Request: fold
Amino acid sequence: MKARLFTLLALLTSGLSPVHAAPPGTDELITQAGTKAAEGNKSIYVHFGASWCGWCKRHDAFLETPTIKPVFEKYFVPVKVVAQETEKNKALENPGSEALLTKLGGPAGLPFSAFLDAKGALIVNSMRVSDKGLAGGNIGHPFAPEEIDWFLVMMKKTAPRMTPEDLTTIESALRTQKK
Reply:
């Protein structure tokens, strides 16, 4: 007991400060997600956000909802990428985030999301396309009816084996959310 106390005291007084590991790079994140996706016959869901972004926080909370998380993770390997941080919070960014955001067709604003296959190739992103094939802009966190519609299109395209019940669970949560 005295030895543990002495060791703890020595560490506290030695001037050592806790080391904060840098966030993993996007190449590493996508490679790891690709391995899991291939093993589970899933797609990768990449969602970009930042600490200053209210809609990003809302999307993160949606994905963590107890009724949504297990359904979502049944079909997708979620990957959160921190991008476009303020100077004060630049250390939170995943290295390579801006390059990946651009590669996946991301806009200047957040949140942005993209579904990838297990090899990391883009299947579809959150840049909505209208029924007439016209660009409709980034849906961010789906809130408006047309944004929710596009999110459902994205999910159907990337998880064709998703059950109607699971799709309804996600759709209902999105359509009943409060502003």
Summary: The longest strand covers residues 43-49. The chain has one domain: 24-175.
